[in-house]
Every structure is written in structure tokens, then in C-alpha cells.
Amino acid sequence: MSYSTADSFPTVTLDDVRGAQKMLAGVARVTPMEGSRHLSGLVGAPVHLKCENLQRTGSFKLRGAYVRIAGLLPEERAAGVVAASAGNHAQGVALASSLLGVHSTVFMPVGAPLPKVAATRDYGAEVRLHGQVVDDSLAAAKEYAAETGAVFIHPFDHPDIIAGQGTVGLEILEQCPEVRTIVVGIGGGGLAAGIAVAVKTLRPEVKVVGVQAAGAAAYPLSLAAGRPVTVENPATMADGIKVGRPGDVPFRIIEQYVDEVRTVSEDELSSALLLCLERAKMVVEPAGASPVAALLSRPETFEGPVVALLSGGNVDPLLMQRILRHGMAAAGRYLAVRLRLTDRPGALATLLGVLSVVDANVLDVSHVRTDPRLGLTEAEVELHLETKGPEHCAEVGAALRQAGYQVIG
Description:
The structure is a single chain. The chain is an alpha/beta fold. It has 3 domains: 221 residues, 3-Layer(aba) Sandwich (Rossmann fold), CATH 3.40.50; 92 residues, Rossmann fold, CATH 3.40.50.1100; 76 residues, 2-Layer Sandwich (Alpha-Beta Plaits), CATH 3.30.70. 44% of the residues lie in helices and 19% in strands. The protein has a 6-stranded mixed sheet. A 4-stranded parallel sheet has the order 7-6-5-8, sandwiched between helices. Strands 14-15-13-16 form a 4-stranded antiparallel sheet. Helix 5 links the parallel strand 5 and strand 6. Helix 5 runs parallel beside helix 6 and helix 12 crosses helix 14. The protein is globular and about 80 Å long. The chain starts with a strand and ends with a strand. Pathway: Amino-acid degradation; L-threonine degradation via propanoate pathway; propanoate from L-threonine: step 1/4. This is L-threonine dehydratase catabolic TdcB. Pfam families: PALP. Its cofactor is pyridoxal 5'-phosphate.
């Protein structure tokens, strides 16, 4: 594709996104859109979920990767491609390369989740484990590209990538023509930029709202400064949007077209992931749940109908377990307490009886008898409880104190 330039950076047009849509016909799925009764009730208007978590490879990344690799010259294809990623981009590049008959090498951190490493290999890539974090893998991938002539496929900072991701925006307008607000997670910015170009060119009255994790929120700072600004040591469970610096190309597009960028907390991300699983029956990763987190945070500020984009569903099962427990705690449905009791036969059974009366479900019990902090006849018990919400948590605490237990945490 050929691209116009703005401020010395190439930009993307509606024609580019439409061209990408034609290229992706029969390759990327037109993912479904599902209504959410619960979120609609909170917002006071229809809310729909655009389910890119059901896309091939489990995320939107295939779209941009395929358009980028399909646009390579024959001699570039012959040299192969290289990428660095801990997950979704790796799988998108691997499958796109296989479909196009191009050899791909993907560098991943040594600690990358095993299911993602296995999936990337299964899609046909040669996987090389290097470094402890993605930045280490990125440096190795660029060095490999310089040594071998393989084409480096950037995850977001290229017009072809942005055009491919923008096809999600065209689908949203086709599936929900009455939409008034589109909410999308932002990491480096390729997805939000592509959607914004497509939507704002066709329907300038539709608001596009970006969402970042508060611990990795480079865009609010960058937009205020008028240039990409780096956030040192970004920290969030949402690794799909944990990017320290906006891409130069998507930044200029987002600066022009995206109406607002909001941030969400880790608690809000956990609660959103839990809601997607329980209410929408959708498995999503934390980054994919970020638009839902924004809706939960300030539902009254969104004009409906709203489309929230579930951008990916590739979550490591062990991480999912931790996040769900965190989400239950944030929603007041999980309670951890420590207390002291007299160490005598039947004491633990008596304690569990108190919890049974108030209908608290005991998930785990840890019993400590030998500790310098404890008296000769004392024992310390740590309980992990499943509860029914904040009011039930308060009821459990009151019942324990009324029964004479010393709650210490």
C-alpha cells in the first residue's frame, strides 16, 4: 500500500483500511457482536461486545500482521520475517506467515507462558527464547533482522499494521450502525488508531474512547505533551497493553481522531475480567477486558449505544486463576482473615461452625501453632473465604468478633 505523510510520519486513510479489508477476506473472521444486559443496565443504553477474542489466534493481531506481511516484496518474503512478543503478536505473525508461505522467527522471553509458546510454534513459527522481558527479545529480534536480512514486523508502529487493525472499525459500523461510542484498549496504539481512522472518516459524530491501564498510561502524558513520552517501568497485569511508549505513527492518528483516553486500575481490570467470564461467558485477557473496566468505572459518562471491544482472549490459566481471585476480592466476594484462638481440641471446628452459620464458604485454612508471636496456648489461623459481597464480608467479620475471636487481618 502507499501512504500519505503528515509531520514526516506516514499516515493511514479510509481507503487503506478498505484495501486491508479486501485483503483479509477469507483470512480473518468477521467476529460476532454480543449484547450485554448487565452493562446496558449500568450505562442506561445498549452495550454490545465486539468479540475479537474469538478471532483466529485469539486476538485482533492476525489482521495487521497478515496485511503487513502480504505487502512485502518477493525478495523480502524470501528473506523471511522476524518479530518479538510474549503472546498475541507472536501468534498473529506466526499464522499470517504460514498462510503466506513465509518463514517466520519469533523471539519470546524465557518466562513467556508455555501455552503461548506452544501455540506460536503450532502456527508455524521458529520460536527462540531470549531474555527475561519483551524488551530483551525485541533487541534480539532487531539484531537478527540486521544479521540475516529478515524483515522486522513491528507490533503496532507501521501503516500496514494500523490499516489491518482498522478493519475492526469497519465491521463495528456494519454490525451496529446506530453506535454512538466505541471503547477500545490502547497499548502502542495500532488498534485504536486504525479503528479511529475508519470510524471517524465515515461517522465523525461517533466517539472513540481509548483505555489504558493506570500503571502503563503513556498516552495521557504524550497527548498532553504533544509528542510520544516514555513511561519508565510500566506495570500492569494487562500485558497486551503494557507498552512504555506510543508508536510514532499511531500517536499522530490518535492525537487527531480519538476523542478521549481514560485509565483503569488493576482492581477494575480484575472485576471486568470476572464480569466477562460470569455474565458474558467470554474468556478474555486483562487487556481485552480494559474497555469493560472503563464502563464499570464510570458507566454514566458513556453515550449509547456503546460497543466495547474485547481485543483478545489469550490468558495463561495460572494468571487467570490469580486474576479471578483478585477480581472476587475487589468485588467483595473473597475475604482473607487472620485470627487468634485458644489452641485446644475442637477449637478449629468451633470456628468453622461460626462461619457456617453466616454461610461463608471456606476455601483454604492455614493453621500455625509455633511462632514467637504466639502465647503458649495460642494458635493463629488464616482463612480464605468466598462471600456474597461487601455486606456479607462485614457480616462475617461481625460474627467472628461477636463469637470472641481476635481478628488481626
